[in-house]
Specification:
It is a single chain. By secondary structure, the protein is mainly alpha-helical. It folds into 2 domains: 2-17 and 165-333, hpI Integrase, Chain A (Orthogonal Bundle), CATH 1.10.443.10; 20-161, Orthogonal Bundle (DNA polymerase, domain 1). It has 13 helices and 4 strands. It has helices spanning 2-8, 63-72, 77-94, 105-117, 126-145, 172-182, 186-198, 202-207, 246-257, 268-281, 290-303, 308-315, 319-333, and strands at residues 12-13, 213-214, 222-225, 238-241. The protein has a 4-stranded antiparallel sheet with strand order 1-4-3-2. The radius of gyration is 24 Å and the shape is elongated. Residues 1-9 and 12-43 have low confidence and may be disordered. Keywords: DNA integration, DNA recombination, DNA-binding.
Length: 336
């Protein structure tokens, strides 16, 4: 019965980040996709930043077009910086004048082996090697997709990852205890409730503004997750319905703290302090973070019957992030 009670308060989506096992053989069997179907449409004009590129274009000439491509696809500043750094290292190893169409699978393997074993006394972290494999697949798949190269030298490149350790999510009783303790402070209550009942990320919570909370229908309060256009994260925007009790929680917070614009006008460190006080008051011995609250939300959603696709929509995850998160949440919700 306790579980059923918890499930009744789950929000509904209105709209629709380790350790690695090293392996000697970096190449597996590529997957062949059958693309039969309707007749192909006439090819569209290539984007301006790649219009003049061919398989005879030097590897170095792709640095700036690749940067533009990453930005256009909404990659984070961190990803753009890391992938461009990897491309420059690849250019230095293979030669700036090498035509991109002459890069082979063996050459890509040689680069990875040089990175891994080429400097005596230096061992790269498995996570760093994994990122460089990811870069290679991203870069050459882009070239293949744009018909700049005919054969993708990274198509069969693999580096196996074991499952990372699973977080110790909160139980239903711990969730109730935390929410009860959070009620002592209107700001803490609003913060904890938004993550436990809407699954927001810390950055999303900090980006919330008062007008993103819709209380027109007090029985179905809505929270809209929005991003600045410069963040290139519009694909993660969504609208989530919360239980009716959030209406009073939010109104109490607005009145107590006189909030008029940004919902939580403080630093992320402040949010951690706010949460830590409630965790201590609830006598929860686990290490509880804002991310753990989001993980707890995801697990409760799956146990309540939400599909994996539905959960992804509620969490607003990209393709890359969902690949790992999907298995993590499935294992947490339905352990063997």
């Amino acid at each position: 019965m306790q579980k059923d009670s918890e499930q009744e308060t789950q929000p509904i989506a209105v709209q629709t980040e380790e350790k690695m096992v090293e392996q000697d053989n970096l190449f597996g069997t590529p997957i062949v996709l059958d693309d039969e179907g309707d007749e192909p449409e006439a090819p569209a004009s290539p984007p301006e930043h790649i219009a003049s590129l061919t398989d005879q274009t030097s590897l170095a000439a792709f640095i700036e077009p690749y940067r533009k491509e990453l930005v256009l696809r909404g990659k984070s500043n961190y990803t753009v910086t890391c992938f461009l750094s990897d491309l420059k290292m690849l250019v230095k190893f293979m030669g700036a004048d090498l035509p991109v169409g002459r890069v082979t699978k063996d050459m890509v393997t040689d680069w990875l082996m040089n990175l891994k074993f080429g400097t005596p006394g230096v061992t790269l972290a498995p996570k760093t090697m994994a990122r460089r494999v990811t870069f290679l697949k991203n870069f050459f798949t882009w070239l293949e997709r744009e018909n700049i190269i005919r054969e993708n030298p990274s198509s069969s490149l693999t580096l196996e990852r074991p499952q990372p350790p699973l977080p110790d999510v909160l139980t239903y009783d711990e969730v109730r205890s935390l929410l009860k303790a959070a009620q002592e402070d209107a700001r803490c209550h609003c913060l904890v409730y938004l993550i436990l009942r809407a699954g927001l990320k810390k950055e999303e919570v900090m980006g919330l503004k008062v007008h993103h909370i819709d209380l027109i229908d007090p029985l179905t309060p809505l929270v809209s997750v929005r991003f600045a256009a410069s963040a290139n994260k519009q694909h993660r925007e969504r609208r989530i319905a919360l239980p009716a009790e959030f209406t009073d929680i939010f109104r109490r917070y607005l009145q107590s703290y006189r909030v008029t614009d940004v919902v939580f006008p403080c630093t992320d460190r402040n949010l951690n302090y706010i949460l830590a006080r409630a965790v201590s008051a609830a006598d929860i011995k686990k290490r509880v973070t804002l991310q753990l609250l989001r993980d707890t939300y995801a697990v409760q959603q799956l146990r309540a019957g939400t599909s994996l696709d539905g959960l992804r929509e509620k969490l607003g995850l990209s393709d890359e992030a969902w690949l790992e998160a999907r298995e993590k949440y499935r294992r947490l919700a339905f352990p063997k």
